[in-house]
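for the record, two folds in this file. i put them one after another cuz i was lazy. first one right below, seq on top, structure tokens after. the second one comes after a little note so u can tell where it starts
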Amino acid sequence: MNWQNSMPMVQITMLQGRTADQKRKIAKRITDALVEEAGARREAIVIAFNEVSKESYASGGELMVDKTK
């Protein structure tokens, strides 16, 4: 298999709350970087945004919902 024909799949997990415009800009910048730096075909790049609630995301052993209190 030629590595240049493989489909890059990027998964981004982040807290809920970003706008569609913010996600558009993120997707474009990541796609541009993969095209420029990895030689990926733009149309083959897939980006998935996985949004989680503050109750379902922890950092440093503490739920994010508890950090904002």
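(here's the note) second protein begins now
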Amino acid sequence: MLRSTYILTIIMLFPFFVFAQKKKEYKIHTIAFYNLENLFDPEDDPITYDDDRTPNGKDHWTYDIYTQKVKNMASVISEIGKDMSNNSPAIIGVAEIENRKVLEDLLNDSLLQPKEYGIIHFDSPDRRGIDVALLYQKALFKPEHTSTYPLLIYDQKTSKRVYTRDQLVVSGYLDGDLIHIIVNHWPSRRGGEAKSRYKREKAAALNIKIMDSLFAINPYAKIITMGDLNDNPNNKSIKKVLGAKQYKKDLGIKTLYNPMEKMAKKGIGSLAWRDQWSLFDQIIISSELVKPEYSSYRYYTASVFNPEYLMTPRGKYKGYPFRSFANGTFTGGYSDHFPVYLYVIKEKR
């Protein structure tokens, strides 16, 4: 419901934008992020804690359920950003996936297979066995360099390492433009927001370290950091550690713009809990992507993808994201998060 109004505004404004630019034509691509809510295959991995998501486990995770879950995820991905780009995302970061196999199954779905997506994935040390990955249309994006950065955090009481997701970094060319993408799934708020806050601040500090290394090579680097940050745009990890700005006028060289902050202030969220919306899923961009000059790809607008079919249809949680599993039962739904996305545009020549 929120999305329909927001996208309508974009569609209404777009013709005026083109007119104001003397009817120039633009290429447009969608870049997205989606937390797939525990996309596990039904096989038992003896190394990770995936026992619940097996046929004999607590969730009775059968192949039939898994197949439906994969189909649901493919259906959503095929629609993200399609309103304006007439295509599924050129690039999409994903979280809460168990392994490469589930991604291969996802991309072999009939809705995505024709798009010929590539996969960039590394196994992370997360104890639950969930990873992040980047999917990209091979015809549109050409990866040049990939790497992962471990997030080294330690329990404040025991000093034992807390094993969590690595941060995935991919540098490549979108239609000739070099873009650097960081895919994140920062530590959760388990144990309470305040007690776990230091973990996400450490994650943000690692993000800054990665970006500083890219800026050292090129101060005008186009960087996109995306993911389930488990913090809102106004939390310290994002406002202070990342230093992300709400307003374009505050940007300078090697700074970050967060288009999601205005959405959060309007009450728009990507997940809900205890009658409160949060915008944990975010896409934050470097200032070079915000310049109002379109000889190369620049940011146009961002949104949360929340059509009605992705919302719980009835009951106590009506309107919340229609999650795929609740109360020990497969619901037939999708994820407990809505996807987020942005458009980048470039003048046609």
